[in-house]
Amino acid sequence: SRSAQICDPFAACSASALRNSFCLAMEEERELNMIKMPTLAQANWNRSHGTFVHHLNREAVSERAFHDQVANLVTPGDSYLFSTGERSPQVVTPYAAAVQTLYREIVSSAVLDALTAFWKAQGDTGWVSETRGLLRQHAEQIARWKREAVCLRVEVETWTLQQSVQALLQAQRNLIASSESHEKRTERFNEFWPRFHEMGRVRSSTRPSSPGGARRGTEVPSWPPQMLPSIASPSWQKLRSTDTQPLDGSPLWKTRASRSRCTFGRTWTQGSLGATRCSSSPDLGSPSVASTQTRLPALSMGSCDGARDTDRASTTAVVGLDRSRSFADTPGATSKSLSLQPVSGFRQNGIVTRDDVDLNVFMAHKKLSTLSQRVLKGASDTAQKQASLKAKAATRRIPVGESLEDARAVRPRAGPPAGTHGKAAAEKYLLACERSGIIPTPVAFATGHSRQVDGKNLSLTDLHLAAFQSVVQDSGAETVDLQGNLNLTDVALSKFVEALLEQPEENSLQALNLKRCAHAGQKTVSVIARALSDPTHWPSLWLLDLSGIQMKMQNHLPLCAAVGSHPNLHTLRLADTGFGQMACSVEQCMDELMGSKSLRVLDLSWSCFNADMYVHLGELVSASSTLEALHIANCSTAVVEVRGITPVAYFIEHLSRDCSLNFLDISLNRIDFRCALVLEVALEHARRLATLEVAHNPLGILGTRSLLRLLCRSESGLLYFKAHGCGTGDGSGQNTDFQVFSATKPEGRYKLDLARPYHRALLRILYTTSDRFKLSPQEAFVQINATPAYEHPAVDSNGRRCIPTSGHLEVNFSVEKAYQRALQGVGESEFELFLERRIATARLVPSWKKVRPLMAQWRSVEGLYQEQIVLLEALAKDFQLSFAHVEQLCRIRSLVPDILGRVLPCVVGGTPSRFLCQQIAPNLQDFIRMLHQGHTFLLLNVENPTGQYRLDLSNAADYAVAERLAILDEWEISAKVQLGRADTSQKGNNSQVRNVRFGERELAAQVMSEWIMPEKGILELDYASAKRPPPDARMLDEVPWNALLAAISKSGSTSSDTPDKVGRLVVESRLQALRQVSHLLFVTSMQMRQLLGSFATEVARAECFVILFNRIADMHNEKVFRVRFESQDELARLRDRLGHASYFPFMQPEQTRFSFDFAQYDQQMAANALVQIAAREKMGNLRQYSFVHLDGTVDPLVAGVPRAWENITKMPKEGTFYVGYECAPEDRKFQLRKELLETYGCWIATVEEDEVMWWSALKEVPLAVREYLEFLIGRYQSLDEVFRIIDGPGGNGVISFREFEDGIKKMKCRRFKGPNGAQKIADIFRYLDPSGEGQISKGEWKVLERIWKEVDMSIREFVQFCDRTWCPKDDTMSQAWTALDADGSGSITKKEWSSALQEAGFFGPAMPIFHFVDTDNEGSITADEFEALASYRKRPNPSAPIAAASS
Question: Nearest-5° angle of CA 381, CA 384, CA 387?
Answer without folding.
Answer: 150
